[in-house]
């Protein structure tokens, strides 16, 4: 039996050239509709929040800054009284179901005791206060969401495994007494009740979450809840007997918290990005619940046919990931399946245990598509990466915004990695959106070349 080629893992000593993790507020406040986010930090963080999310001036976002000034930093003011004053105003103006405090680098440096202050104000105000330290100690800006979700996990209600089992036994006895109920109906009702203990974690738009719910429901596996939920008051129950599964590769802290603190079981699956990833994600969930998946191959094949116009553009092209948002492994696997060659996958941080299934699928994809396995560089040095790109001359570089213009000046087409963070790329249906982002710079260059040729012909004719 032929062994799979294992990716080459390297670790460099480069800096983390990514956004600040407090940018997670930009999408989390929209997902958790009854929340209010309070970022505790300096005025610089306020400027960043105003510019990074790109919120319109007429919008009313449910987040604000608790600005730290000289008096706070020099311990001349009472932190609890200052935060109490702000939270009282938030309750009066918005009356949210939960207030989420986002700690920043400043709160770490001055050792502000947010975890000690929060329970006192929570009891006083009668509103839950969740503390999440999304600061520059994280490797990537997307891990800000990981910090918030891990903190929210502790507020999920407890899943009563014994009570649920007793309810199922009572239902089974009730069905068994009714002689008119067919035996296959009894099996279906009992098995379906056992399949409702799946909680998915990861912040996705409601439409995308509904698509993934539908994908699993087609295989008779029902999703019992999402973390985060649209309403804080509707957080899913966690505990022994509950299975949890992630939809994003940057949620390793959220994956371990339910296992260690709530005795949940983690479904180690690839991530549902692209038709191939979505199929592998569903197959893994089905295997955990003892369900035989049906119709996945035919559905995936049809979706690939619908993507043929994009595949013609990128097949045979090469791509280089500089590393920014921790989606790199999943995107690389998807693009290899689309026919591209991936030279290198730079990634700020690599949790091999949490991404083990994704790495294995990457190896299988490279073998199936007969493409070389890319090297994976953790914490890459950007100067060295630019030198390698100069030698390899990739057709496309997926990079952070800071390096896009310098690479374009070197005649390397680029795509901002942050766009994949905000775009709807999960699930089979949204594969077109992901490929639209990838092919846009390639199509722009192709159109530019055709335009120059047309202009030169006109000039010659004149």
UniProtKB/TrEMBL annotation:
Q: Which UniProt keywords apply?
A: 4Fe-4S, ATP-binding, Chlorophyll biosynthesis, Chloroplast, Iron, Iron-sulfur, Metal-binding, Nucleotide-binding, Oxidoreductase, Photosynthesis, Plastid
> Where does the signal sequence lie?
none
* Gene Ontology molecular function: any one: 4 iron, 4 sulfur cluster binding
Question: Which SUPFAM superfamilies does the UniProt record give?
Answer: Helical backbone' metal receptor (SSF53807)
Its BP terms in the Gene Ontology are: light-independent chlorophyll biosynthetic process; photosynthesis, dark reaction
Q: What does it catalyze?
A: chlorophyllide a + oxidized 2[4Fe-4S]-[ferredoxin] + 2 ADP + 2 phosphate = protochlorophyllide a + reduced 2[4Fe-4S]-[ferredoxin] + 2 ATP + 2 H2O
According to UniProt, this protein's pathway is: Porphyrin-containing compound metabolism; chlorophyll biosynthesis (light-independent)
Main localization is plastid
Q: Which Pfam families match?
A: Oxidored_nitro (PF00148)
List, alphabetically, the GO terms of the cellular component aspect. Answer: chloroplast
Matching InterPro entries: LIPOR_BchN/ChlN, Nase/OxRdtase_comp1, Protochl_reductN
Quaternary state and interactors: Protochlorophyllide reductase is composed of three subunits; ChlL, ChlN and ChlB. Forms a heterotetramer of two ChlB and two ChlN subunits.
- List the NCBIfam families: DPOR_bchN, PRK02842.1
Family the entry assigns: Belongs to the BchN/ChlN family.
Q: Which HAMAP family match?
A: ChlN_BchN
> What is the recorded name of this protein?
Light-independent protochlorophyllide reductase subunit N
Q: Which organism is it from?
A: Thelypteris tonkinensis
């Amino acid at each position: 039996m032929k062994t799979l080629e294992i990716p080459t893992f390297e670790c460099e000593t480069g800096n983390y050239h990514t956004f600040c993790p407090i940018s997670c507020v930009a999408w989390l406040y929209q997902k958790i509709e009854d929340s209010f986010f309070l970022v505790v930090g300096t005025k610089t963080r306020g400027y960043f929040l105003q510019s990074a999310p790109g919120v319109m001036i007429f919008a009313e976002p449910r987040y604000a800054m608790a600005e730290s000034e000289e008096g706070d930093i020099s311990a001349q003011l009472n932190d609890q009284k200052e935060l109490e004053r702000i939270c009282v105003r938030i309750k009066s103006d918005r009356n949210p179901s939960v207030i989420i405090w986002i700690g920043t680098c400043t709160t770490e440096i001055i050792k502000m005791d947010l975890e000690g202050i929060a329970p006192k104000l929570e009891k006083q105000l009668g509103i839950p206060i969740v503390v999440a330290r999304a600061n520059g100690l994280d490797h990537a800006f997307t891990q800000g969401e990981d910090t918030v979700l891990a903190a929210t996990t502790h507020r999920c209600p407890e899943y009563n495994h014994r009570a649920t089992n007793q309810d199922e036994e009572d239902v089974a006895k009730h069905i068994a007494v009714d002689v008119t109920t067919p035996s296959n109906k009894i099996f279906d009702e009992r098995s379906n009740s056992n399949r409702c203990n799946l909680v998915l974690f990861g912040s996705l738009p409601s439409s995308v979450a509904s698509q993934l719910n539908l994908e699993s429901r087609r295989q008779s596996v029902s999703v019992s809840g999402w973390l985060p939920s649209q309403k804080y008051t509707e957080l899913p129950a966690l505990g022994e007997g509950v299975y949890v599964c992630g939809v994003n590769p940057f949620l390793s802290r959220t994956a371990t918290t339910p296992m260690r603190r709530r005795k949940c079981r983690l479904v180690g699956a690839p991530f549902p990005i692209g038709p191939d990833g979505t199929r592998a994600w569903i197959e893994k969930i089905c295997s955990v619940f003892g369900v035989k998946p049906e119709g996945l191959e035919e559905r995936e094949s049809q979706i690939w046919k619908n993507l043929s116009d994009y595949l013609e553009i990128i097949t045979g092209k090469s791509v280089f990931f500089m590393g920014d948002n921790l989606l790199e492994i999943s995107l690389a696997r998807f693009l290899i399946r689309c026919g591209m060659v991936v030279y290198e996958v730079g990634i700020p941080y690599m949790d091999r245990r949490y991404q083990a299934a994704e790495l294995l699928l990457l190896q299988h994809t490279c073998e199936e598509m007969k493409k070389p396995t890319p090297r994976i560089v953790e914490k890459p040095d950007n100067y060295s990466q630019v030198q390698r790109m100069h030698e390899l001359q990739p057709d496309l570089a997926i990079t952070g915004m800071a390096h896009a213009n310098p690479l374009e000046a070197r005649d390397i087409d680029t795509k901002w990695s942050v766009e994949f963070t905000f775009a709807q790329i999960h699930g089979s249906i949204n594969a077109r959106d992901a490929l639209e982002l990838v092919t846009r710079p390639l199509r722009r260059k192709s159109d530019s070349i055709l335009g120059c040729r047309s202009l030169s012909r006109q000039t010659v004719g004149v």
